[in-house]
Amino acid sequence: MKFQSFNLHPVIAASIAEAGYTTPTPIQQQAIPTVLQGRDVMGLAQTGTGKTAAFALPILNRLMDGPRGRVRALIVAPTRELAEQIHESFTMLGRLTKLKSVTVYGGVNVNPQIQALRNGVEIVVACPGRLLDHLSQGTIDLSHLEVLVLDEADQMFDMGFLPDIRRILKQIPAKRQTLLFSATMPPDINKLAQEILSNPVTVQVGNTAPPVTVSHALYPVEQHLKTALLLELLKHTDTDSVLIFTRTKHRAKRLGEQLEKAGYKAASLQGNLSQNRRQAALDGFRDGTYQILVATDIAARGIDVSQISHVVNYDIPDTPEAYVHRIGRTGRAAKTGDAFTMVCSDDTIMVRTIEKKLGTPLERRTVSGFDYTVPAPKKDAEFARPPREPRPARKPASAPKSSVGSINPFKSDHPGAKPSGRPQQGRPGAAGGAPKTVFNSSRRGK
Ligand code: AMP
């Protein structure tokens, strides 16, 4: 199948060619014709499948006809990074359309957003909190809205945004096309979908299956040796750019510093950073200034760095879905990539759950020449199970109207991460399975 078969407007077809897209991805093949017909869509797809273009292209096509200078398409996303990324996709694919897109999210000065909205835009990509601020201040007019997209709906739910979404829904025209994308379908999202989608077509790709181009391996190791093993792995692996996940912001920051000290061009991305510093870290990672980015799940959500060659789970994620989501950042859109996961003995249950989800056992590897017997220093903080982030406060189900009564330029759109019920303590050590040794052969080299 080729993009030509969708009969998109010639200026959009030209941008697709310029972007270097030749073949529509499976989600695009399914979603584009359906969205073009004006149908509501429930899209089950994770980041990395090409889902952004799956909705951006038919929306741009629709907006080519009809009035300009009023908001006709609204995309709601959980994080600022994802909002920026969607905006960039619209800008790239709509480069020749003269359609305008703007991002609306908290943590940055509101005035440029107000000015851009006043100047007239057709597409708004927003995080829920700041969008509600604009609605209550009357600085955005959504009365002409034709298409609503809720992207990464499960993540918005995890982050406590569902009440905000419901408030937004009350303030936009009921007669509209609605597209809901989610990597998973927890009951609350299913319920929301049933309420807001009218006779939807469900499109689904690899809901839980990771990209086939990724090769995964587990590296059993004791907690206190993780950093040393990571440095050993990095030394022996031919990496372009590496995204490393830690369980907590504190660990992300600390590991970033340790890697820098070891001579790597590394940055960490965690919720405590100002928007400017987050953007600098992201831009630096994208343009190669930083070879390594260390992040928590929430901070990394929506990162689109097509060149990521390796994902390292310094800490195993809390759910199999998070595992798939993390490693979905490598091997994106048919690039090859590797995913390394460090595991301790108390990760055994999660390893089994992940393997069950993937439908295949993961290979255990050990690194030859690495001394796994070094005992933990008595007071080594890394020896202990990493502490949890404080439990995020869920947004109250019915936040008072006054909470959006005035626009706070510093309000963040990150209410917090999903709490987890995993045990916190346990003996360090290796998760089950007989590991295979690497680096004594020429396993790697890309
Ligand atoms: P997404 O799932 O929307 O985050 O997209 C993942 C990556 O795939 C992005 O870097 C897109 O630019 C890229 N991409 C999307 N569609 C295609 C396509 N048809 N061919 C090649 N790359 C694509």
Would you write up a description of this structure?
The chain is of the alpha/beta class. It folds into two domains: 203 residues, Rossmann fold, CATH 3.40.50.300; 145 residues, P-loop containing nucleotide triphosphate hydrolases (Rossmann fold), CATH 3.40.50. It is 34% helix and 15% strand. The chain has 15 helices and 15 strands. It has an eight-stranded parallel β-sheet with strand order 10-11-9-12-13-8-14-15, with helices on both faces. The chain has a seven-stranded parallel β-sheet with strand order 3-4-2-5-6-1-7, sandwiched between helices. The longest helix has 14 residues. The protein is globular. The site of adenosine monophosphate has 16 residues, from helix 3.
Order of helices and strands: HHEHEHEHEHEHHEHEEHEHEHEHEHEHEE
Strand percentage lies at 15-25%
Work out the radius of gyration.
22 Å
CATH class of the largest domain: Alpha Beta
Distance between the termini: 30 Å
In the sheet with the most strands, the strands line up as 10-11-9-12-13-8-14-15
